[in-house]
């Protein structure tokens, strides 16, 4: 799926000059097709990482899910913050700082940043002026999708969204890693 996304950038003639990924294994693996097609190294930025939370490594719903266990309920008192992990504002701020640093790190060309669904969605919502608290089932951020930002005026704006690997998603399993 990442190879399809990278090939899409090649097909569109995008001048990719840098590839930066979260240090987690799956993002490093997803960055490799971009690095290979554009003959670039993959560097990492810890600010692109998925936020940690109280429910890491657990199944949330269904039989035996963490949400059914009363000992976990205190972690759910404030879904607007969220109370179970890193605040949404913190996620958006660190991601926007990483994006700004990446943009400033090159004189010309595109920078590919490989991150995770929630941090990408926080950037989208922050730039769109939307509340950061949201229903995670309604995120527009498919596996190996490409959200494109550009500097306009005095800040970043979202200028595009593509899902070049969409045709492969019927074969994929996204278990909603937490």
What does this 3D model show about the protein?
There is one protein chain. The protein is an alpha/beta fold and 178 residues long. The protein has one domain (2-51, 86-171): Phosphoglycerate mutase-like (Rossmann fold), CATH 3.40.50.1240. 29% of the residues lie in helices and 16% in strands. The chain contains four helices and five strands. It has helices at residues 2-11, 25-38, 88-104, 117-127, and strands at residues 16-21, 42-44, 110-114, 146-152, 155-162. The strands form two sheets. A three-stranded parallel beta sheet has the order 2-1-3, sandwiched between helices. Helix 2 links the parallel strand 1 (16-21) and strand 2. Helix 1 (2-11) packs parallel to helix 2. The longest helix is centred in the middle third of the chain and has 17 residues, at 88-104. The chain is globular, with a radius of gyration of 17 Å. The relative contact order is 0.18. The mean pLDDT is 89.
Keywords:
178 residues, alpha/beta, Rossmann fold, two-stranded antiparallel sheet
Which CATH architecture is right? 3-Layer(aba) Sandwich
Run of helices and strands: HEHEHEHEE
Q: Beta-strand percentage?
A: 15-25%
Structural class: alpha/beta
* Domain module tally: 1
Number of strands: 5
Low-confidence stretches: none
Q: Work out the helix count.
A: 4
How helical, in percent, are the residues? 25-40%
Radius of gyration from the CA trace?
17 Å
CATH class (first level) name: Alpha Beta
Shape: globular
Query: Taking strands numbered 1, 2, ... along the chain, how are they ordered across the largest sheet?
Result: 2-1-3
Average pLDDT, all residues: 89
Q: CATH homologous superfamily name? A: Phosphoglycerate mutase-like
> Terminal Cα separation, in Å?
20 Å
Largest sheet report: 3 strands, parallel
